[in-house]
Amino acid sequence: MGAFSPELRKNHFYALISTSDGQLLFLVNMLSKMKHGTRVGSRIAEVHNGSSLFTGDAGQGESNIRRWIIENDWLEAIVALPLNMFYNTGIATYVWVLTNRKPEHRKGKVQLIDATQWFKPLRKNLGKKNCELADQDIQRICDAFLAFEETEQSKIFPNAALGYWKVTVERPLRLKGIDPERAYTAKEIKALKESAERPPAEASAKAGADDAPAVISKIHKKGMAADPLRGLFAATIRGKGVVVECEPDPDLRDTEQVPLLEEGGIEAFLRREVLPHAADAWYVPDSVKTGYEISFTRYFYKPQPLRTLDEIRADILALERETEGLLEEIIGTGGTDR
Known about the structure:
By secondary structure, the protein is an alpha+beta fold. It has helices at 6-11, 23-31, 51-54, 61-71, 135-147, 186-195, 201-204, 265-273, 296-300, 309-323, 326-331; strands spanning 43-49, 75-80, 93-99, 109-114, 120-126, 129-132, 154-158, 163-170, 216-219, 233-237, 240-246, 254-259, 282-283, 289-292. The chain contains 11 helices and 14 strands.
């Protein structure tokens, strides 16, 4: 712990990293040694495997480190290297480039460079290493980095484009034969779960299962405003309009990843993507966690064009011609009936 700055020790995120993968911890250690009091600051370049880009869920150590780096605007670029670059391993590798003195035109942005196709084959393999970066490949990477332009191999994103909110989405517990106009205590709900009949799964997926009302866990006093997206539902109990909270069903609990740049935020996303399929769903504001991940596959994937029907038809006809008469050759002709 002595190697880390007080700010890092205060965040405690380094203690939550998997003990089997310490490369992000090593990066944090390097970042803690950056020079902040000089004009040029510090620049760091490290080679990592792909796990640093995406391991760790929102709120976990790896994601928190990425969040800390990106929200401090230290991540300048990540370069995807060719496969089989290193001896005896074929895993994908990436160069992380970080600085605490970004030029003005790079501030608030991250550049991703796909250099996986820029390499020189080796004349003889060294284990799994079958390629290397030639001088022209290194120059090409440097040129793409310095140009800082959108190309097929270079993508530029605002920092927030790499982040998301992880949101827990709840659905009400529905049980047959319960009183829909009273609130149940936690003890009563536990007993009901063991004794009361649940509707079929397909019925639970529908918001208005008449024979299986939602279990009410709390009835709010007068003055509380209904807010269905946050689990506060308007209801009529004994002829009076009230606001109630429902017991969530753990079997129907789900999570959603909402981009930080989602127009309208979490609620707009849920209205568009969740409520059309589950009108009684709500989210738990206290459950919202911010995560960051970097997916080269998402940004650089090039789908293969589908074959035309004429090409598929030609292949089928060619296969039929090739196998014509094959069955007769295998079983023989004029065999005896059995």
